[in-house]
């Protein structure tokens, strides 16, 4: 009985081995190609509310008054930056701090008021990184009367990923506090190699979605401050303005 059983096992193993090395006949084969060509994205990219990086279906848009700058073309570009309105203020001989009105943002169902922001896009495809800087002119009247000693500062600035870039692509440098100097540039954000691709916003304060945002058109942004010394000469009924220059440059290799 043992011999019979061993022969049976051997026979089964041999059959499996023979079946295992059998090769099917080759009928035919063919090759095909898949191709893609990339061209530069010249933009522009529409601005979005930093409080809603991926809104659906109504992204809304900034109100045209006072609106903002930007809308540049090119693969590395500034899409949008909010203007700031500090309104009418009473003349004072004491040092005062003023805040701009929140920026108006329009949705189909109505308007809300959010912190000012700047939005940039890097669609170069090189992943080389970039620097975002800002400087300004003196606050001055149309007759070039200077508001001496005035200081403009952003506090609690936050970066927001407006696309689907991974968290590893978040810019390495994000300055929460930026005092905007006259005649020289201050760094706002900077992305190293393999950072900052696609679209990012820097919000001048905590971003707010449409449900969290203010409904009060008179509410001010407490994270932007214009400080004016009491000793500064102030001309009644004259508008003082300052031009802010935001510069987005490619990181040096």
TrEMBL record:
Residues 1-27 form the signal peptide. Keywords: Signal. It comes from the Bacteria. Residues 28-249 form the WxL domain. Residues 53-64 have a biased composition (Acidic residues). Pfam families: WxL. Residues 206-221 have a biased composition (Basic and acidic residues). InterPro entries: WxL_dom. Residues 32-77, 200-230 are annotated as: Disordered. This is WxL domain-containing protein.
């Amino acid at each position: 009985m043992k011999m019979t059983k061993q022969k049976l096992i051997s026979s089964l193993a041999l059959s499996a081995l023979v079946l295992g090395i059998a090769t099917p006949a080759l009928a035919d084969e063919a090759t095909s190609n898949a191709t893609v060509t990339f061209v530069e994205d010249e933009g522009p990219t529409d601005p979005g509310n930093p409080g809603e990086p991926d809104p659906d279906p109504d992204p809304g848009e900034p109100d045209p008054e006072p609106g903002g700058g930007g809308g540049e073309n090119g693969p590395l570009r500034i899409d949008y930056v909010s203007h700031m309105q500090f309104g009418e203020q009473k003349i004072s001989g004491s040092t005062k701090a003023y805040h701009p009105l929140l920026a108006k943002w329009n949705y189909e169902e109505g308007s809300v008021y959010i912190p000012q922001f700047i939005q940039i896009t890097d669609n170069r495809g090189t992943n080389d990184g970039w620097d975002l800087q800002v400087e300004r002119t003196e606050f001055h009247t149309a007759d070039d009367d200077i508001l001496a000693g005035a200081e403009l500062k952003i506090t609690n600035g936050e970066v927001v990923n407006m696309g689907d870039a991974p968290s590893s692509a978040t810019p390495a440098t994000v300055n929460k506090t930026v005092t905007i100097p006259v005649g020289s540039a201050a760094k706002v954000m900077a992305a190293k190699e393999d950072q900052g691709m696609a679209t990012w916003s820097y919000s001048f304060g905590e971003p707010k979605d449409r449900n969290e945002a203010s409904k009060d058109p008179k509410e001010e942004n407490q994270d932007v401050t214009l400080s004016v010394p009491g000793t500064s000469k102030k001309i009644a009924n004259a508008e003082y303005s300052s031009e802010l220059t935001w510069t987005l440059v490619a990181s040096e290799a």
